[in-house]
Amino acid sequence: MDVDHYKQFLPDNLERLTNRVSVLGANGFTSGKHRWTVDVGQGKDWYIGVALESIQRKNTIFLSPAEGVWVIGLSNGDSLWAQTTTRSKLPIKEKPQRITVELDYEKGKVTFINAADSTKIYSFKDRFSERIFPYFAPGLFFPGTFPWRPTP
């Protein structure tokens, strides 16, 4: 199957992320506590979490707090990682199907929870001083096979 056949040519506006297949949530936060649940389903390679409004959108970055991105991700369908400065492998008994992301802006905390059993997967602790957006990177898939979606 020819992947270029499905490529969409979109305007290169300032907000568009062009360095990887990813999107920021529509609403950003500068205070308060927020949470959302993502259905990661059968995805084999994905990243979810939060990112600063000022992240590099046109150049490739390493997904890490140093670059303004606090995410966890699955690679090769079986390895769960916290994208820290030196990427940390997370111990899991079973691959989560739904993950809740909790942001506490004032405490500088981003927590990831397995929605099935409410167990904590990982937490980042930092200091935020600008707008933060939900970050979603579902990986590459062919049309009709989108493996996950944010859920209210």
UniProtKB/TrEMBL annotation:
InterPro entries, per database record: B30.2/SPRY, B30.2/SPRY_sf, Butyrophylin_SPRY, ConA-like_dom_sf, SPRY_dom, TRIM/RBCC
SMART domains, alphabetized: SPRY (SM00449)
Span of domain B30.2/SPRY: 1-152
A Pfam family hit: SPRY
Domain of life: Eukaryota
Protein name per the record: B30.2/SPRY domain-containing protein
